[in-house]
Amino acid sequence: MLGANSFAGRRKSLYLCLAFAAAVICFLNLIFLTRTVDHTTLRLPGLSFFRPQHKHLEGTYARDQHPISDLMNEANRRWQQYEQSRSTSFRETVAKYRETYGRHPPPGFKEWYQYARKHNVHNVDDFQQITGDLRPFWAVSPKEIRQMAARLQQSPGIAGVRVRDHKVVSHSEGWRVETLAAAVDRLAEYLPDMDIAMNTMDQPRVMATYEDIQNHLQVEESTRAIPEDAADQFTQGMDGFYNEEAGVNEDLDPGWFSVAGKPYMDFAKEACPPNSPARGSNLTLQDADKLYKSSYGDFVSNFTGSSDLCIVGPELGDKHGFLFSASSNVITRKLLPVFGECKVSVNNDILFPANMYFLKDPRYVYNSKHDFEWEDKTDSLLWRGVTSGGIQVEDNWFKLHRQRFVRMANATEMDLEKVSILSKDSREQYQIVDDFRPSDFATSYFDVGFTEAWGCIPDCHFYEGVWTYKEPKAFSEQFKAKYLVDIDGHSFSGRWRAFHQSKSLGLKATIFREWHDSRLFAWRHFVPMDNQYGDLYSLMTYFIGLHPSASEDPLPSHGPSVPRHDFEAEVIAAQSREWAHLALRDEDLEIYLYLLLLEYGRIVDDNRDNIGYSGDGSELDHFDAQHPFPQALQPLVDG
Ligand SMILES: *[C@@H]1O[C@H](CO)[C@@H](O)[C@H](O)[C@H]1NC(C)=O
Ligand SMILES: *[C@@H]1O[C@H](CO)[C@@H](O)[C@H](O)[C@H]1NC(C)=O
Ligand SMILES: *[C@@H]1O[C@H](CO)[C@@H](O)[C@H](O)[C@H]1NC(C)=O
Questions:
Q1: Which residues are registered as beta bridge partners of 163?
Q2: Would you say the CB of residue 528 lies under 6 angstroms from ligand 2?
Q3: CA separation for the pair 359, 494 (Å, rounded)
Q4: Residue 373 to residues 34, 55, 549, 570: CA-CA distances in angstroms?
Q5: Are 384 and 435 in the same domain?
Q6: How many Å lie between the centroid of ligand 3 and the Cα of residue 563?
Q7: Could you say which residues form the signal peptide (predicted)?
Q8: Is residue 383 part of a domain?
Q9: The CATH number of the domain where 406 resides is what?
Q10: Residues 543 and 465 both lie in one domain
Q11: SS3 502
Q12: How far apart are CA 164 and CA 258, in angstroms?
C-alpha cells in the first residue's frame, strides 16, 4: 500500500513538475509573442527551441486555385530541399565541395569552416556564386590575372586593395574601397598576398562574349583534379603584384570602351547563347515570357529568368534606364578580374557583398525599434525614390524603369487605362479579366512617388506637371506599410536587406544580381515582380483583395472580385524576416567575403592545380561535436 501510495505521490509530483514546466514555457512564449523585441537580445543559451524572433502564425492558407498558391508551395518545396540538404559536418562539407566542383576546397578552408560555424553560418555549402564567378578564370594563367589585377588599379573607375603579409598595406581612396579595405583587413590574417581590383562605378564592367566564356568553362572542366597530395597552403614570394616603385605593366590593355548612351543589348547579345531571344531566336515575345512566367496569370515563376537579359533583354531593352540611358557605362570584352557589387546576367564581374551593407548608414540599416507588427501596418503599397536610373531627356524619360513604375501606380495616370488581373467567378474559379480599371484601387492602396528630380539633361523642366513630389520617408515611416516595393536605381538597391529584415513584405523587380541571390527564394522570402510591372495590379489585388463595386443589381455581381490574401502576405513577410536574421546577417557578409578571397587567392596562385585542402575532414570531428549544427527551421504555419 505504502509503496503504491508513494508511487502515486511521486507521479503526482511529476505531473505537477511537468505542469509547472509547461506553464513556464507557456509564460515565456507569451512574453516573446506579445512583445516587440529585438531578436538579438533573445539569444538565450539553452532556449534554442524557442524561435523568439517569430511567432507561430495562426491561420490557414486559402486553399484556392490561384496560381500564387502554387508558386508559394513550389518555393517552399524547393526551400525545404535546400534546408534539408545542408552539410552537417566538416567531413560532409568537404565531400560535397569535391562532388560539386570536382576540386579540393582552397587552402585555408578548414579555418574558414571553423570561422563560419563559430559565426553561426546557416548553410555552409551555398557559395556557388563564388565558384561560378571564378570558374572562367581557370582558363587564364595565374600570373596574367595577378598582373592584370595590378594594372587595373590604374584604370579609371577601378580602385585597389593590396594584401601583403596578412595585412592590408595600402588601398586607393574613396568610401567604397575604404569600406572594402577595412573588411578585408579584418580577414587578412587568413589571406595570402593579393591585389583586389574593385569597380567604383555604379555599372558592372566585364562582358566577355558567350563563345569565349564557353571556351573558358571547357578549359576549367578539363583541369579539374583532386590530387591526393595537394598542399594546404598558398605559394609564397610570387611576382606580378602591384608595386608602387616598379609601376605596373602598361602593355596590358584592359580593352575598355564606353557603351553609355548606346543600346546595351546591342553589346549584351554577344554574351548570350546563339539560340536565345537576345541573339535573335525566332521565339515570339510571348514564348520568351513563358520561360519565366507562370502558365496562368503571368506571375514571375522563375526570378532568375526574369532578370536574364538573354531572355528579357529584347523586351526590356528600351524599358530600363540601365539598358538605354546609363549615365556612364565602360565595359570590356576581356575577362578581367574585377570585383563588383552587382552585375547583370551577361557580366563576368566577381561579386562581393556591396560596401553599402558594411556601413551603418541609417538610411539602409534596419532597426526593429522602428518597425510595427503586421496587424498594425496599413494595407498599402509604398515606394519613394529619386528619378535616378539613367540620364533623362525630354523624349526618353517616360521609358525609364522608375518613371514607368511611378506612372503605373498613379491613379490619375491610370484613370483611362485597363489592366489584366485574375478575378474569382461565381463558380469559384479564377479567370483572367482584361479590362480592370485600376484607378480606384491605386487611390485607395498605393502611396508611390518621387521625392525629387535628378539626372536630367539639360535640366528637369519637362517634369513640370508630371509628378507631385512627395516627402521622403525614413524607414520608421516606410515600415508602417505592409507592402514595400524595391526597384533598381542606377544599379542595385541598397534597401533590400532592410526590407527583408523588416516585418513588411518586399516586392522586387530588378535586372541586377547580387552576392546573396541563391539564398533568397522568390515566393518564400519575397514577392517577385516583373520588370515590366504588368503583374502589379494582379499581385496587389490578390494580397489586398478586391470587392465588386456596389450595384443595384445583386446578381451577377458587378466587376471583378478577388478574395483577400492578407495571411499569405504576412506569412511571406515573416519567413523573409526570419531568414534574413539567419542568412543576411553582418556575419554572413564576412563569411562570404572570406571564402571569396580564399578562392580568389587560389585562382591567382601559380600552383593552383596542386594546392587545396586534401584531407577527409576528420580533423574537425571534435570541433563539430562541440558546435552542433543549426537546426532546420520548423514551418511558421501549420501544414
Ligand atoms: C524556330 O526555329 C527552330 C529551329 O531553329 C524551328 O525548329 C522552329 O520550327 C522555328 N519556330 C518558328 C515558330 O518558326
Ligand atoms: C530559371 O531561369 C534560369 C535563367 O534563365 C535558368 O538557367 C533556369 O534553368 C531556370 N530554372 C527553372 C527551374 O526553370
Ligand atoms: C499623377 O499623375 C498626375 C497626372 O499626370 C500628376 O498631376 C500627379 O502629380 C501625379 N502624382 C504623383 C504622385 O506623381
A1: 168, 194
A2: no
A3: 11
A4: 10, 11, 30, 10
A5: yes
A6: 29
A7: none
A8: yes
A9: 3.40.50
A10: yes
A11: coil
A12: 33
Shared-domain flag, residues 533 and 422: yes
Give 155-191 pLDDT, tens digit per residue.
Answer: 999 999 999 999 999 999 999 999 999 999 999 999 9
Q: Which of 287, 300, 302, 312 to mutate to test the pocket of ligand 2 (most atoms within 8 A of CB)?
A: 302
Output the pLDDT for position 359.
86
Nearest CA to ligand 2 atom 3: 305
Sequence letter at residue 408: M
State which of 312, 333, 358 marks the end of a domain.
Answer: 358
Position with higher pLDDT, 14 vs 423: 423
Same domain, 353 and 376: no
Is residue 136 in a domain? yes
Site to probe by mutation for ligand 3, drawn from 468, 469, 470, 471 as the one with most ligand atoms within 8 Å of Cβ, is: 468
The helix-helix angle for 175-187 and 586-603 (nearest 10°) equals 80
Which bound ligand lies closest to the C-alpha atom of 406?
3
Nearest CA to ligand 2 atom 8: 305
User: Would you say residue 42 has pLDDT above 70?
Assistant: no
Cell 559565426 sits on residue: 119
Asked if residue 300 and residue 439 are part of one domain, the reply reads no
| Residue 569, all three cell numbers | 502576405
> Could you tell me if 411 and 317 lie in one domain?
no
Quickly state the pLDDT bin for 4 (edges 50, 70, 90).
very low
Q: Is residue 396 part of a domain?
A: yes
Distance 316 CA to ligand 2 centre (A): 18
Instruction: Please tell me the number of the ligand nearest to residue 284's CA.
Output: 1
pLDDT at 18 over 80: no
**For 361-422, what is the HEC assignment?**
CCCCCCCHHHCCCHHHCEEEEEEEEECCCCCECCCCHHHCHHHHHHHHCCCCCCCCCCEEEE
Residue 543 pLDDT > 70 = yes
Domain membership of residue 114 (yes or no) is no
Expressed in angstroms and rounded, the spacing between residue 375 Cα and the centre of ligand 2 is 36
User: Residues with Cβ < 8 Å from 411, sequence gap 6 or more?
Assistant: 438, 439, 440, 442, 443, 446
Overall number of domains in the chain: 3
The amino acid that residue 164 corresponds to is R
Amino acid identity at 45:
P
Query: In the predicted model, what is the mean pLDDT of the chain?
Result: 90
Protein residue with its CA nearest to atom 14 in ligand 3: 467
Mean pLDDT of 347-367: 91
pLDDT band at 638 (very low <50, low <70, confident <90, very high): low
Residue 300 CA to residue 532 CA, distance in Å, equals: 11
Q: Looking at the CA of 301, which ligand is closest?
A: 2
Q: How long is the chain?
A: 639
pTM, full prediction: 0.90
d(CA 466, CA 452): 12
Cell of 504: 513588411
Domain around 540 = 371-583
What pLDDT, in 10s, does the model give residues 62-86? 778 899 999 999 999 999 999 999 9
Residue 525 has pLDDT above 60, yes or no: yes
Position in ligand 3 atom list of the atom nearest CA 465:
7
Q: Give the confidence band of 108 by pLDDT, cuts at 50, 70, 90.
A: very high
Domain co-membership, 385 together with 286 = no
Cell (9 digits) for 379: 494595407
CA of 97 to the centre of ligand 3 (A): 54
Pocket of ligand 3 (CB under 6 A): 410, 412-413, 449, 465-468
